[in-house]
Amino acid sequence: MAKNKLLIVESPAKAGTIQKYLGKNYKVVASMGHVIDLPKSSLGVDVDNNFEPKYITIRGKGDLLTSLKKEAKKADEVLLATDPDREGEAISWHLAHALKIDPASNCRVTFNEITKTAVKDAIKQPRPIDMKLVDAQQARRVLDRIVGYKISPILWEKVKKGLSAGRVQSVATRLICDREEEILNFVPEEFHTIDVKLHEKHSKKQINARYFGENGKERRLGSLDEANKVVQDITDAEFVVESVKENTMKRKPQPPFTTSTLQQDASRKFSYQASRTMQIAQTLYEGVKLGGKLGTIGLITYMRTDSLRIADDALQEAELFLKAEYGEEYVKPTQYKSKKRSQDAHEAIRPTSIAIRPIDIKDKLTTEQYKLYKLIWERFAASQMESAIYRMTSVEISANGHKFKANGSEIIFKGYMKVYVESTDDKEEKTKALPSMKKGDALTASDIESKQHFTQPPPRFSDASLIRELEENGIGRPSTYAPTISTIVSRGYVQRSKKQLIPTALGNVTTDIMKQNFTNIVDVDFTAHMEEELDNVEEGSLDWITVLKDFYPEFADTLEKAQINIEKIEIKDRVSDVKCEKCGRLMVYKLSRFGEFLACPGYPECQNTKAIRVGTGVKCPKCEGEILIKQSKKGRTYFGCEHWPKCDFMAWDTPVKDESCPECGSLLMRKNGRGAKIYCYNEDCSYERKLSRSESTKDDSE
After folding, report:
1. Does the annotation count 302 as an active-site position?
2. Does 340 score more than 70 pLDDT?
């Protein structure tokens, strides 16, 4: 008689997908993430008894745990299939204890992708719970709990109630605050450039060259007088080609995505916040209903990874597919080396099958799912293709003792660039192919342009550049980047302005206190060292209790000194120009986890609060009220009528100010991003136009 088996996963979406792969003898249920954890109301760690955690059932999860216990009793076998990482291993360990399953038995199942083959193969190979992974998670959880619960009360007492400190969040905030200080202290230096437009006699082909120096040496023009002197020297002078150098350059494809590189590229290309990227990726991993022979399938491999490894069968499938699609000369199967500390049990983020092309399933995906899946698919495909080859040309030109340089490039073999072009945080100057020239050719200047410039301070961090900085410094791990940024924004230490992350007064004050009193906690090198120790626990070369015993004595001493040394700091609320209609006081700005709001400073006598009104100056097309800029609970900007909920006008696209539809007189909307356009809000009107260059840089919501 066939056994009844219970398979426990983390999310209902995943449970639904997997249930369709397995027979009627299996029941797949979801734990909804952690069921057991440290209590919220207390430290929950016995620091005097080997840092023993005091785990409890999470509030609100009691009924769920009872239901899981009932299902486990009815089953002949229980398999724990939570996510394939430290966190997932710990959830399985807690479930094993709660359901009275021996953790050393073959009860644990992991799969890197949710496809029928991967799931069925994994179920055939259950294993014991990996206590090294569990201990690494426990060490991180207990360490973070001690830091947060011991420092936060001091900040509440000395600065402001509700503040918090965290082992990774405090370092991330410090990086942003330190960058802002660099920007404020930056002293710009003047310099000048001279660009000339040149062409051969009787030729219209133009060459753009830039001043390099004189008498064979590079020279920086630091003043207007120096620049004017050069312009004077070269005006009416003959420009002669001194040398022409040509060579070819290969540009290798990037490896497939890891968590951090996916978050960075999605931020640059789509302006997605890291948390949004992970939410979309989660849906692609857990399963999408495609219909037909494919049915419901997970489209990508597990999205929390720092490994670059690719499974052998995926490499072979990619090679065959790409040769058929693009030709043998474009394909180069490549296995990439992961960084030293990566969790190589995982794979890189890739499509579960390269044969499922984005365009073929576009109608089955949301816009966001399609964009992210296409990005992942293209990056993986490109990683298995040949390098792009450029012809690079460098020309040196002299005029009256002054040297100019012109550079050109021409792609002669696209290679992987037929599929994907990576993005960067740095602005790259695009170069075009230069016309054919040889040494001794005489050129004529049609235009000489001298420009004044000033050196620029380092840019503020964006989600993408902060994640890169955290990763390069060994701070945090794939699962922590997105929640870290979300935490420091929601708690008011950092605010977003467009893509930039800017420290608030609260963030600066808190960081200063941390730097002066908890040096190690906000020290980049110390935090990176702690991450290495947690990795050593996972590898089995270090005991997790030892990590905590080494950390705690010095930390406890620091706490004691901080309690004495930190003086009471009062952070004054910003005063608005809005009068409280109940008592007449000017209201002040306060911060909640949903953003800023206005509150009466007379609290608790007067408890009046109100949302901050940010108008657009655009009339609502439904009721003539004003359209306001609003924030969703997830921090996304949208536009809604001031008379909500009586008027249900709501839009994600931006209302256009001071212009009506030329065909019907209705409201115009601006859609940004790819396919940017101006279009009429009236569904019965077909008017639309592409955005002009000036319109694409303008923001009507400002």
Report:
1. yes
2. no
